[in-house]
Amino acid sequence: MLAFDGVRGSRGWQFGEALAMSFPSAPTAARPAAVRSRPRLRRLSSAAPERVADGVWLLRGGLVRTMNVYLVEEPGGSGVTVYDAGEKGMAAAIVAAARGFGGITRVVLGHGDTDHRGAAAALRAYADVLCHPDAVAQAEGSGGRDYWRMNDLPLDVRLLHGFSHRFVWDGGPVHIDDTVKEGDAIAGFEVIDLPGHAPGLIGLWRGRDRVALVSDCFYMTDMHGRRQPPAVPLDAYNLDTARAKRSIGKLASLEPAIVLPGHRGPLTGPDVVAQLEAAAA
Ligand SMILES: [Zn+2]
Fold this sequence. Notes:
This protein has 281 residues and is α/β, with parallel strands linked by helices.
């Protein structure tokens, strides 16, 4: 099989390029029009907000409700920070849910992959979109496609995901208005670096009740959307799997009580740290 690696690698690159080329090359800084909203479609795209920690609300989106978007109430003010932007069809549901808290103050992307920037381009009608400097190229560009190794995925997953990235998850490149780095304060949380799965992957950490929002630092879903214990994301989707494991270890060392991932979860209970340490091993 080793003899074919070069061929497989190059075909993977072409597959990624073909998908990436079907998008406009660069997002513009112009604000989009307000999101059109139909209640029935909104309910299809996302469940109602679910309170998962003090001032933190989870919107479970997508057909099988595996796409997590978090609304974080701004302490001492009105509005919510949106952390991760789910899949593109969730835009109207995010806007409607945020309206109940006074609207969107900012959108922070945990990383730039298609299924996390999904609704971000549409949400720029309401607020700035921020991410880590190392995630800008993906958020404004291919959404991860330029380093994923899709051909390493099983054929059924490759076909399912190829379709989903293109037609269901990705809202396309989004203009990044500003960047945030480790230690920055966001809505009562602080930014923490958790790179590896994706460049510039960031989480939000709140020490007073040990809550962490971590995007795809680890997966609690398999490639078909089924639940699984925390695990390092699949190699084919990682920029650097060893680095991703070190980031899970870093998260474990914070001794979180509630960890809110990008898909499924929350991770909570007496053995959170042990589960994270197992995933980092
Ligand atoms: Zn993801």
